[in-house]
């Protein structure tokens, strides 16, 4: 077994890959970052400013594969003898192959559901058999965040079994995995949802759209929080429960919701320590120790941020939704039938953080509203009753220890934007996020603010005393997921 | 720092806090005038912060060449004095047939006459300037190394800051609702934050100019808002696309690289008249098709974002700049048709001259707001990035 393997792997699938010229044991079907993690290699790419980066915190993961630069390492499926090298973010392939590209696929459906977590599965379960639906999921699996869980989930029991049950789709539901929606655009009585799968453009025309686009892990601010070996909660769950690889030999869990991770670490028997107030991570080219605000030093090789999730507001604002600040985060303003505006619904953690089962019920509720709109009999009130039992989660408001941080080493955004850079602008009296983003590039890089804008808002609010609901939150612009120019460049 | 407090009075009041309003305020304040800018949202929010960043002298008529030559001098002077980035990285027009070459030879002759050092170069020379170009269909290029680009954020912020140092007041999140006029004389403005007493008003609202003109009872200046969109890619090595590259053949495309590293630009795709600014899917398709024809390496780069801004267009794509006679004292500097950012420093000088001296050495006559009424349209200004 490799250093961080949690289970024996199938030796018939054993292959060798080369990273920076050195051979590593790997297994067919594995993703590149997982194979490297299993071998104990965390540093995989380098930011434009020269900071070492891994795959599990934030920022992109461009790597050079068999001589071709700027390949997305995060989605890279390895093959035998593949040669992979580090590169800097700003390196790109100057000589490119010019092909015809793939033809555009087109589908016309009643309902496009973006996101196949428990909420999205609830929607299609409710409308399936009656309306045609496209279920669009960016990841390689169905079940969203719940698929990453190993421990029992309230209302569902075993998460894997529950998802398997929910994915017996009726015939008029089409599932599109590994398909990233680029936005929602008005087209008369239809909405156009363009999406990309394996560099192929797909255009969905739908009479109704449901945003079950989920939430993102909140990024915690501490010194060297961008360092290889720092994990977002979801990535730590994925490496353990999907790939059976440990995040580290001895890990530190930080954040307001450590139990989301510690239960899973217990399950695998991984040694951990809970550190509520991290100040700084140190190490040569990966995490070697974590120092907390009291000066305690923890010798660990991984740090997991378990600071809760916040709704991904980008799909909402791009589609024309408005936001409010409630329970410690921004959520879409919904009308009495869960719409952000006419024809576009939101459900699940995109609409508010709550247990998976509540998200599923909310999906069923939206499905029922849509059925009624199409003239079918439906009883949304049954679901709204049940949903009332689940009050969405409140998130404590973090206060950044701005005076004790070395803010140059704290990364508020994965695209080389330090806390200092943003804080200097805020301290100069500029408290308008619209201007801050333009002066600092916060929220203008690869994630388009998905992970970093919220911390920017918290910082402005903390420094200025302005309440969060008074801040002018910039609207996301299409594409809501990065797309290669060649994918949309084709012409028929 | 801009405020939300409206002063009780101001000799001159500028409506619109884009680059044009801010540079006029800067120039007037520098000359000792009491001046206030009233901006509906925040400084730069209208079209300035959405612009394509290019600054060029390669126009096709004497007046615009002269104006832009002065503007580039001022861009250089103020970027050095105030420390914002203005890069003279050139404009490179790619030409694909003899007709285009002939037209550009005529333009180059005009530009050279005013000391703008544009010259016709070979496709190979163009590729030396931008090695990523596909020159297989290019027959020549028009190249002026003294054209350039600047960061709209940094430059507008710098002009705003120094305008304030000279005593100008910048008032944000304040919307002008009406003019207070007595016997054809402006006495003040009504806003959502109360009244301001003022004798001279400058309409620098570009896309919204007709609405402000209507408040003042002026109707004869045709300026309409059109939606133009822009794209930016992931940042790549700085210096990969130094100049602004233009191709009429491929969608009237303009593209360059920002100081941050992203490839930025747009195409001729225009929607309107409209006040809608939602980016469209069709634009993303169009711009990607054309850009990847010009620079094939862009195929493998990620699109980070698209957005929209206004071209406030007049029938001849030249702005309306000057004094409005029906009302005393009312000036307009609007309808820039996509050229407001690049022209702003020269326009500021022009308008300040007109207000403080009643005349200017710059060719303000070309931009006469009454030319439309008289049916004396100018030749179409070369409209492009």
What does this structure look like?
The complex is a heterodimer of chains A (492) and B (385). Chain A is an alpha/beta fold. Among the domains of chain A are: 11-86, Roll (Ubiquitin-like (UB roll)); 105-216 and 310-387, 3-Layer(bba) Sandwich (FAD/NAD(P)-binding domain), CATH 3.50.50; 405-476, BFD-like [2Fe-2S]-binding domain (Arc Repressor Mutant, subunit A), CATH 1.10.10.1100. Chain A is 22% helix and 26% strand. Chain A is globular, with a radius of gyration of 22 Å. The model of chain A has no long low-confidence stretch (mean pLDDT 96). The model of chain B has no long low-confidence stretch (mean pLDDT 96). In chain B, helix 1 packs parallel to helix 5 and helix 2 (62-82) packs across helix 8 (340-356). In chain B, a hairpin with a 2-residue loop joins strand 11 (185-191) and strand 12 (194-203). The longest helix of chain B has 21 residues, at 62-82. Classes of the chains: A alpha/beta (492), B alpha+beta (385). Strand 30 (483-484) of chain A pairs antiparallel with strand 18 (302-313) of chain B.
